[in-house]
What does this fold into?
Amino acid sequence: MTGAQDRLRDRRLAGDVRAGSWARAKAQRRQWAFVRTNWRHFAVFGIAAAAFIAAGAALMPAGFRRGLTVGVGGSTVVSTVVVFVLLATGVGPARMGATAEQWTASELRPLRRRGWKLVNHFGLGFGDLDHLLIGPAGLIVVETKWSSHGWRTVAQDQALRDAVDQVERSARQLELWAPIRKAGLPVRAAVFLWGSGDSMVERPLPEEIDGVTIIHGVPAAKAWRSGVLDSNAGVTVDQVDAATASVVNICAIET
It folds into this structure.
């Protein structure tokens, strides 16, 4: 039973429900705050839309056409409200960032078949780590970034520079965490970059900035995974289990 419970726990920690959960929750709080502030306007709009749909349905013959009119009208109203709230609150980038974290998680999950543990969304009091890998080469802190404007994987790109600084801080703080110090595990850092449309010019290989690995798209992710599997830091199973137990304990506190 314990083995089955551990596998279920590991699957949940590595799943898409956790990936991007912090960004999604933040976006949802902002959207609900906007709706609560402007509920009167939405109520007026809803009443007016319902009256318009009812009038249109009344002009249709009873049966399929009338039901179709109500269904299409209701769906249009709901979609209009959702899009309006999304645009008015400006949470589109945050939503896309959460989706990008799920893309990263899907690229990290194959490592689980080779003895790695994956935890999406891990908080340790100093902020949210998008992804944390624990395995034969130690710990890897992974940050996910999404941009609609494209990425230049050079140190002069300020957005990328900020991402590198952020993941470096997270890696240093994780390295100072008592259970990790005690386990003696090395900590590395990586950044996954995602974009949309023409902005997503994927690189075939990972790059490196100040010791932080930069993975830009699916081809680079595959090459990076191969490198991770080939690396050997002399980490024992006991060290991995000790670090995993400490991380899982924190995740249990979060929930």
Observations:
- Residues 64-89 form the longest helix (26 residues).
- Strands lie at 117-123, 128-135, 138-147, 187-195, 207-209, 212-216.
- The chain has a mean pLDDT of 84.
- The two ends are 22 Å apart (CA to CA).
